[in-house]
Amino acid sequence: MAVISGVNGAVYWNEELTSIAIPNSISFSAENEIISSTDNGAASSGILNFVNEGYKEGMLITLSDAVTTGNNRTFTIVEPVTSGTITVSSGEGLVASTGDASTGITFLEAEPGYPEAGFYNWAINYKVDLLDKTNFDTSSGGRSYIASIKDWTAKADKYFLSTGNAVNDWLGDTVKARFFINYVATPSTGDASHYYEGNTIVTGIDIGTPVDALITQGISFQGVGTLTPTTRTWTWNTTG
What we know:
The chain is an all-beta fold. It folds into 2 domains: 16-109, Elongation Factor Tu (Ef-tu), domain 3; 116-232, Elongation Factor Tu (Ef-tu), domain 3 (Beta Barrel). The chain is 2% helix and 42% strand.
């Protein structure tokens, strides 16, 4: 593998948002808008408020359970989200549909997640605990150990943004994070994405305010479960 420049690194996060809208509150318009009820009710009641649910510009969403199968695809949100409307990328071939009357239409935040702006550095500490198994019979040659539980933490640095700074809401949340060594929008065998992936809890947000430089934020992550190094050569939202 060739040497990779850090210039192509990135930090993506995915809250794995899942929402359901009742069929009669949603439509697909020719203007590339996905429209749901503007009511502020909870999604659990069948009424989906896109703002309250956390959908954002730049996010990828996958729709399923629509009657018109052409609407069961991945969309990119391209405009600021209002409570009842998501404007998605052009050329998606939207077709009017009211969905399945029995199940509603399911929204799922898609891969690779949301590229929160401003990140310029990240580091991962990946380690394993050791258990001392030295006994009288083996102590003369030095201590003996066996591997125990793996653990990982991460830190990332970003520039503070005065608007749209989602990290301000991360503290204490569990999010799926992807730390990219090399981000590729359309991975392939000849141009792969390389990253580490895992669920994390955000444990700290540190803000630095120098008089002669940009304001920065340092984000601390505690890994939950497995950290998975991945070389991805297949397109996002498809199975490799």
